[in-house]
Amino acid sequence: MFTDVGGLKLLTLAVLAIIVFGPDKLPKLIQDTMGFIRKVRSFADNAKEDIRSELGPEFKDFEFEDLHPKTFVRKQLMGDGEDPLGLKGMKDTIDIRSVLDDKPAAPVNGRTGGVSFDKAAPAAASTGAPLQPGERPPFDPDAT
């Protein structure tokens, strides 16, 4: 929010403050503002400590920064240095070079990493044959 404030803007604000408040009242105004900021910070720190003490010892590692949505999602999905989603294992099974060269992937851990996109044989329903009682209809992967 305040990252785009440069030297010229700060100088303009200082000159404007001197003009509006005057050189005799400006030091008192700065002192009052700094005292207010200190009180707000101490109030926030006391509130955090009260919440931590009320939560109990099982939440001793609780950080309020973890409640930020980006941090919360990152921590819940990726864990603390772990791989709960198995992304590293998936990365090891995918062979990008074979995909780019249009060659079949080499087997990894006894499985091939490639996926076949060939069309399956026509289903029985497309031939018009009626289903027997209790028979499940054929699955069409293109329809889902």
From TrEMBL:
Locations listed in the record: Membrane
Main location: membrane
Classification via InterPro entries: TatA/B/E (IPR003369)
UniProt entry keywords in alphabetical sequence: Membrane, Protein transport, Translocation, Transmembrane, Transmembrane helix, Transport
Pfam families listed in its UniProt record: TatA_B_E
Presence of keyword Protein transport: yes
Region (Disordered): 103-144
Membrane topology qualifier: Single-pass membrane protein
Entry superkingdom: Bacteria
Protein name stated in the entry: Preprotein translocase
Source organism (scientific name): Streptomyces rubellomurinus (strain ATCC 31215)
The organism's taxonomic lineage, starting at the top: Bacteria, Bacillati, Actinomycetota, Actinomycetes, Kitasatosporales
